[in-house]
Design brief:
There is one protein chain. With 460 residues, this protein is α/β, with parallel strands linked by helices. It folds into two domains: 165 residues, 3-Layer(aba) Sandwich (D-Maltodextrin-Binding Protein, domain 2); 224 residues, Periplasmic binding protein-like II (D-Maltodextrin-Binding Protein, domain 2), CATH 3.40.190. Helices cover 50% and strands 14% of the residues. It contains 19 helices and 13 strands. Helix 2 links the parallel strand 1 and strand 2. The longest helix is centred in the N-terminal third of the chain and has 32 residues. InterPro entries: Bact_solute-bd_prot1, SBP. It holds the Pfam family SBP_bac_1. This is Extracellular solute-binding protein.
């Protein structure tokens, strides 16, 4: 590690020297081109030659599919800017599905010690694990040099031992998208308690519709509902204690929350066969009018604002937070900035790649790009942008609902998978699918998860 640190230091000094030299050359050029009455001076010193030999870096991204086309377009524009600013640079884009990248491909590359130069990564807990092994580039000095370190809402998910190892691309909250036109036609109101939410679900079911769109082939999707429920029933702080042993998955209030989700499945609030449905399927249930409400991340708004994807449903979808158990209690919402980009520590060994990465960061994390992401893709900013500025950037009715939901948050928490070990995430994912499939009840499933938690804690 000392050798790697020395190489990193030498690389940074080399880049800094190159920048100073480049700036000096530009100033001389400006002076020479300006009108003057003095005779031209002969300069016998050899000009510094810019290394423009071709070289390549790879950016692994997860902007795959129609729903992410706007985010991909933004990435492509940043790539063009970066290539134009760095002589000889060619950037290869490597598109991989988000779940496949996180749980399979990136883990394998990290195990081999050969990740791409730039890659999509979850901040907590993934970034810390990779940083601990010396596989991720420390960005602290780069952010300080660019003057943007203090401009982020939070860098906590990407921070390990007071150093920064990645950057969030945007923020998000989780809540319910709903068919606003249907609500108005049926005289339904946005619920203010869990009990009222159930009353709305019963009315929708009685009308022959599906109350909640759901796709559970990937377990993280139904776990959005479960995670928000246990944060209400057991408190938003309880998830922080699982990894330390201070709290347990078998806590009666956690059991009550998962049992509530189980109850909703048994009551038929979800379409039968949800364990076989892909993520896009539940959006289609809403778009076709088959289902009326859908728990999802705020990022999903881009689908409902795009005529190519949502058709006639554009302008008919609203958004509200999951309501509290008791009327008047604070609104508790999953809110984080945990998805972003990381950079291979090997970049530090090549000054030209380090320059390319620095330029990429400079172009990607700007107020302009954050607001463009909000306007075009509906992604909440990861950088400090005022709520008034966000409202002025997008006057779309659905986005205004999301801004309202943000303003109502009393307590926020990060998603559970940012706080527990990977093996616990796996046990919980398998468990919720078993509950949905009727194999286990909530209590038995959580006993299994607690056993996995204790085993993971014991290996620290």
């Amino acid at each position: 590690m000392k050798k790697k640190s020395l190489l990193l230091l030498m690389s940074l000094i080399f880049v800094a020297s190159a920048v100073v030299t480049g700036c000096g050359k530009n100033n001389n050029t400006e002076k020479e081109s300006a009108p003057t009455t003095e005779p031209a001076k002969t300069n016998n010193a050899a000009e510094v030659k810019v290394n423009d030999e071709p070289f390549e870096i790879t950016i692994r991204h997860t902007q795959v599919g129609e729903a992410k086309k706007f985010r991909l377009a933004m990435l492509e524009d940043v790539v063009k800017q970066t290539e134009a600013a760095v002589p000889g640079l060619k950037i290869k884009l490597d598109a991989v599905d988000s779940e496949v990248n996180r749980k399979e491909k990136l883990r394998g590359e990290m195990a081999a010690g050969k990740p791409p130069e730039v890659f999509d990564v979850f901040g907590s807990p993934d970034a810390a694990l990779y940083a601990k092994e010396g596989l991720m580039l420390d960005l602290t000095s780069i952010l300080n040099d660019l003057g943007i370190k203090e401009k982020f809402n939070t860098l906590a998910p990407f921070t390990y031992e007071d150093k920064i190892y990645g950057l969030p691309i945007g923020g998000s909250i989780e809540g319910y998208f709903y068919n606003k036109e249907y609500f108005e036609q049926k005289g339904l109101k946005v619920p203010t308690t869990i009990a009222e939410l159930e009353q709305v679900a019963e009315a929708i079911k009685a009308d022959g519709k599906i109350p909640f769109a759901q796709s559970s082939k990937d377990a993280w999707i139904p776990l959005m509902t479960t995670n928000n429920l246990w944060s209400y029933y057991a408190g938003a702080d309880i998830t922080y204690g699982f990894k330390t042993g201070a709290t347990k998955w078998t806590d009666p209030n956690v059991v009550k929350a998962v049992a509530k989700h189980e109850e909703w499945v048994e009551k038929g609030y979800y379409k039968k066969g949800e364990l076989g449905f892909e993520y896009a399927d539940m959006r289609n249930q809403v778009i076709t009018g088959e289902a009326i409400m859908m728990m999802d991340g705020s990022w999903a708004n881009s689908v409902f604002r795009d005529p190519a994807q949502a058709g006639d449903m554009v302008g008919k979808i609203g958004y509200f937070n999951m309501p509290p158990v008791n009327a008047g209690d604070p609104i508790i919402v999953m809110q984080d900035a945990n998805n972003g980009y990381g950079f291979s520590s090997a970049v530090a060994e090549d000054p030209r790649k380090l320059q390319a990465v620095t330029e990429f960061i400079k172009n990607m994390w700007t107020d302009e790009m954050q607001l463009r992401g909000l306007k075009e893709d509906g992604v909440l900013p990861a950088m400090k942008i005022s709520l008034d500025q966000m409202k002025a950037t997008s006057d779309d009715a659905l986005m205004q609902d999301i801004f309202k939901a943000v303003s109502e948050i009393g307590t926020s928490f990060p998603a559970f998978d940012a706080l527990v070990q990977a093996e616990v995430n796996t046990a919980l994912s398998m468990g919720i699918q078993q509950v949905i499939g009727g194999e286990f009840d909530a209590a038995k499933m959580l006993e299994n998860v607690q056993a996995a938690q204790e085993a993971a804690n014991a290996t620290k």
